[in-house]
Amino acid sequence: MRGFGKSWFREGSLLAEFGESMGQGVRQQKQALALNAAKVDAELASKAKSEFIANMSHELRTPLNAIIGFSDMLATKTVTGEEKVIQYSAYIKQAAEHLLALINGILDVSKIQAGKLSVDPEPISLAHVIDSCLLITDAKAKEKNITVDSVVPEKMPMLLADPLRLKQIIINLLGNAVKFTPEWGKVRLEAAVHTTGMATISVSDTGPGMDAEEIDTAMSPFGQVDSGFNKKHEGTGLGLPIALALARLHGGDLQIHSTKGVGTRVSVFIPLAAAAPVAPPPTGTHLHQEPRRLS
């Protein structure tokens, strides 16, 4: 009892000693619970990072082996035909671009967690950004015979966004949708004006979908729903966490609605240029924040 203020009992009495002992026991129990919770959080974070590093080593080796193998064949003139030289050069370029994308993703996560990543918003046309993003993802979609549709209103207002970062968000969402959608599936990109003074950009697919636990995993910075050495899809699993962080740096947000066995719909909210100025997010936007719901 003495731990909670002045003792209620006469000093030196049996009740006073009992109260003192009980107070110490309560404090020790609280400390033990706090330490145990911190230990569990640290173990989970360590496990996620270990899995990420294991997956990352595989992701880096694949393009590096391709670059080394094909370049060695060209250097030793194992391949001399002009057609093969052009083909292998294209393979090297493709592997190098994939490797650069992996490294850029890791660097972006590091900058976001350190609060060093910034955006430079300006009035931009969403239609132009979407057109360039569709061109980039079109080849992957055709490889799997996936139909990609886009619906953007003709009189869509200008957005207040960083063109490069908005393009990164949309490419991440389209890339994920194409990656996880099976052959002959469908991907749809829609844009609309939200009642909150935001533009809504949604990407939906006919992929396997996710349950609530899998969505939490996909949104964590080092989590992958399809992880391990037997995973079916390439990638680091950083696309959605980066898209969420970039949306919040714009003053917007990201939401996921998914049904197991049906598909997934990811919606990102970006301010309109004509809307009232949005207060900048606090310095050091972190990836572990929970997505909020916009009414």
Short account of what is shown:
This protein is of the alpha+beta class. It has helices spanning 14-75, 82-113, 126-143, 163-180, 212-219, 239-249; strands at 122-124, 147-151, 159-161, 186-193, 198-205, 253-259, 263-271. β6 and β7 (263-271) form a beta hairpin.
Give an overview in words:
This protein has 295 residues and is α+β, with helices and mostly antiparallel strands. It is 51% helix and 15% strand. The protein has six helices and seven strands; from the N terminus they run ααβαββαββααββ. It has helices at residues 14-75, 82-113, 126-143, 163-180, 212-219, 239-249, and strands spanning 122-124, 147-151, 159-161, 186-193, 198-205, 253-259, 263-271. The strands form two sheets. It has a five-stranded mixed beta sheet with strand order 2-4-5-7-6, with helices on one face. The longest helix has 62 residues, at 14-75. The protein is extended and about 100 Å long.
Structural key phrases:
single chain, alpha+beta, 5-stranded mixed beta sheet, disordered C terminus
Which SSEs are present, and which pair or pack?
Layout: H1 14-75, H2 82-113, E1 122-124, H3 126-143, E2 147-151, E3 159-161, H4 163-180, E4 186-193, E5 198-205, H5 212-219, H6 239-249, E6 253-259, E7 263-271
Parallel strand pairs: 2-4
Antiparallel strand pairs: 1-3, 4-5, 5-7, 6-7
Helix pairs in contact: 1-2, 2-6, 3-4, 4-6
